[in-house]
Amino acid sequence: xxxxxxxxxxxxxxxxxxxxxxxxxxxxxTGILPAVIIILIILGLIIGFLNITAKEIVLFLVATxxxxxxxxxxxxxxxxxxxxxxxxxxxxxxxxxxxAAIVASIKALWAVGKPxx
Length: 117
Hints:
4 helices
């Protein structure tokens, strides 16, 4: 059941990131952006605690790093504001995944630091 909650947190977070990212690029989300960021952070924590297992940590962290590195890469696309939309969407997806990455990193450090095995 916990994995389903984490899965739906991920889906809802992605939908929010895409919709608000498009709205933000069009200048329609300025008033709601702080609340959306808080919601994405909470959803990211849920994802990190409920979805990321020990064998998925490395792949998840590499994917999250790649997501964070590509930020701003679409800015030169000026046609129809597509670059701004993509950058805004990626920034919000990164906002969703950053808390999950922090949780996964702490889980990985815990696994490395605990005695035994």
